[in-house]
Amino acid sequence: MAQSADVKVLPDIQASKLKVTNTSRPLPKCEPEELGFGKVISDHMLMIQWSAAEGWNAPEIVPSGPIGLHPFSHVFHYAIECYEGMKAYKDSDGNIRMFRPEKNMERMNVSASRLCLPNFDGDELVKCIKELLRLDRDWIPQKKGYAMYLRPVMFSTTPWLGLTQCSEAMLFVLQSPVGPYFKSGYVPIKLHVDAKYIRAWPGGTGNVKFGGNYAPTVASQIAAAKAGCSQALYVYDKEEWVTEAGTMNMFFLIKSTSGTLQLFTPSLEDGCILPGITRLSVIELAKEWGTEVVEEPLPLKIVIDACEQDRCLEAFGTGTAAVLQPVGALQHNGKDYTLPEDGFAEGSFQMKMLAKLKEIQYGEIEHPWSVCIT
Amino acid sequence: MAQSADVKVLPDIQASKLKVTNTSRPLPKCEPEELGFGKVISDHMLMIQWSAAEGWNAPEIVPSGPIGLHPFSHVFHYAIECYEGMKAYKDSDGNIRMFRPEKNMERMNVSASRLCLPNFDGDELVKCIKELLRLDRDWIPQKKGYAMYLRPVMFSTTPWLGLTQCSEAMLFVLQSPVGPYFKSGYVPIKLHVDAKYIRAWPGGTGNVKFGGNYAPTVASQIAAAKAGCSQALYVYDKEEWVTEAGTMNMFFLIKSTSGTLQLFTPSLEDGCILPGITRLSVIELAKEWGTEVVEEPLPLKIVIDACEQDRCLEAFGTGTAAVLQPVGALQHNGKDYTLPEDGFAEGSFQMKMLAKLKEIQYGEIEHPWSVCIT
């Protein structure tokens, strides 16, 4: 009895304890056309501290400003950090809408577990995020294609150099009003199959949104640009299993040799790709539409063969930042494979999918994926 | 002509421009016995800022204190960060000695290149580090086994959410007086072969000192502890190629079936292990002593077979923090393999190696690897 009384249940995130400090120095806004992606920070950010001894502290909304940390903090040395990407949209009535936020919360907890960072109550964090959005609602652009990008990020601030389990952490939710992710708009891009660097491998961290998955890909981006391509397409092992492209999940609409239309996308089972929320939404909508979805380990050869035989009708990437990104060509072993132009024209599968996703995200149709904040 | 005049050569790190701001609030010191590893920070740190537009700014030695960064800084989100581990020793005459510092500078530049962080002149950085050590010389413990641990760390402070090449970075050199790394001293540890998580893979980042290599290993440490072991031994692929253990390189002294004594250590060629400086020093000394060094890709089976046939005489890890760590046992697929106790007793290969390294590091013998700072 005495023992069980000693077991202290540490506090989780509690939205009811949220403290708000309004900014006294509003930050400069810019025209929507000048926004680009992730350059501008809005007036306020959400900050929650955690320690192994005390659990989650009361959440705080504070003016956006520098984060000051002990120089030994684990985030600087051992990359104990994970993040999420979410968007909030303004509908034509001026309501704020989030897209499947509970999925981001689930995934962030999976990422945190892999890195031995603390877990949290996702519903409570979403409540805090809603308050943040309400406070900075004037920062959310209303134009279609524009949104408030939300960046939840958690990292270990454990202040010693030994590589140990996390004893102190911080969680932030940052806000950035954004325009369309790719400068070139919905113009198809060319992907460069990266043979030198491997993004993820079985037993690694490709299935979680871990900061360390991204740093090594800058070199691949540069290699892709040198090859005249926009992004890298990552594969692994001798079979060249397809994983991701840039920071997106990949889809290929292929006609089988017997004439069936199939939407191929790498499966989650090898743990090498991120379980994207746009990816999941595309799979679910495609199935609703009666399209056959082949969610299996995908050797690049299936794609290349289909390209050579004019059976690869469409290819596109998915992600929160880009939503849908048409792919017009692949470069593999120095050889270019060009996809048909009507694959990304009006009336194509991906353009219908993009329109549907936008309808839902901007609240043009009622849909359970769109969470309206009044 | 006009064009070449436009090519602006950006400044590199210049020790002659070093600015020193002495602390006005000295930090509390503790007894050497209470130091542990990396818990205490000394009074001063070296800080150098870099930008793509201006190159390296003048180096500054400033009082150790919090690092304040824009919340969008790439280090928090995409783990664009690399570090080094070095030690400075005080010899019996009170001189400060560094161990092969030029090797750390070379490796840090390789790490930086892989992450598309800026390179720098290592000789100039070493000059700045020497000034830092001189300033905080009272912090360096003189007792054998103790040292000033130096932590150079560089990260991208690029302040936007797009994953791009680095436009702003900071380099710090932090100082921490340390005692012996492993609490248990030179007591052998037991390694747990981790079958679930893979530390590194060809085409990945195992060969550079990238923060992202370390975060995912905390889970392996916990799994090792649960299995009654001290550290994880990382292998990859079906052949179970040996890579590293904990944060150390690995060595196995094995008697061949024909009776030859061979020192096995995984080679660098697959890019899956860090080119350790203690590792290199052990290889070079072993060769000097006439020991046959087998530096090749090492399948775990070679080690397990040798253990089963009582031919694995010794095993040890190497690293800057630990220097040499005796290994007394391995656990693989639930089975324990115990190494002979005289393998880590006085007179063993590894104890002679450790004594030799310490003689050099503490300046008990003159050796070109020990750089004396007067």
From TrEMBL, chains A, B:
Keywords: Amino-acid biosynthesis, Aminotransferase, Branched-chain amino acid biosynthesis, Pyridoxal phosphate, Transferase. The modification N6-(pyridoxal phosphate)lysine is found at residue 209. The keyword Cell wall biogenesis/degradation does not apply. InterPro entries: Aminotrans_IV, Aminotrans_IV_CS, Aminotransferase-like, B_amino_transII, BCAT-like_C, BCAT-like_N, BCAT_family. GO terms for biological process: amino acid biosynthetic process; branched-chain amino acid biosynthetic process. Its EC number is 2.6.1.42. It catalyses: L-valine + 2-oxoglutarate = 3-methyl-2-oxobutanoate + L-glutamate; L-leucine + 2-oxoglutarate = 4-methyl-2-oxopentanoate + L-glutamate; L-isoleucine + 2-oxoglutarate = (S)-3-methyl-2-oxopentanoate + L-glutamate. GO terms for molecular function: branched-chain-amino-acid transaminase activity. Transmembrane segments: none annotated. The keyword Cell wall biogenesis/degradation does not apply. Its cofactor is pyridoxal 5'-phosphate. It comes from the Eukaryota. NCBIfam families: ilvE_II (TIGR01123), PRK13357.1 (NF009897). Belongs to the class-IV pyridoxal-phosphate-dependent aminotransferase family. This is Branched-chain-amino-acid aminotransferase.
